[in-house]
Amino acid sequence: MGVTKERTVLYCIHCQKETLHTLTYVGGELQKIKCTECGMEISFDKKQMLLVYSEDLVKRILTKPKRMSKEAFSDLSSFLKSLPLRIATKPARIVREVKDLLDD
Ligand SMILES: [Zn+2]
Fold this sequence. Notes:
Layout: E1 3-12, E2 17-26, E3 29-35, E4 41-43, H1 46-52, H2 55-62, H3 70-81, H4 85-88, H5 92-97
Antiparallel strand pairs: 1-2, 2-3, 3-4
């Protein structure tokens, strides 16, 4: 599966301001984002997200847009502002199984 990295300005819930983030897409789907200022990383768990958000919204947020439009980013940015941390934070048990997410 192809891994794509994009850099863009997004709202960081830790810095509480807009900062430059690295977005990692695997197979065209957003896997994680990382704030380049504080280093906080959010891994997206699609299953968890689907418990709270509609499939349409989850798809829109996680699928790499063909073009990095302003709309796509403002979607993602406002989503992050409303994101309950528990959705983005994997339980330790799962994190151990997904070791590459811990690699810095
Ligand atoms: Zn930050």
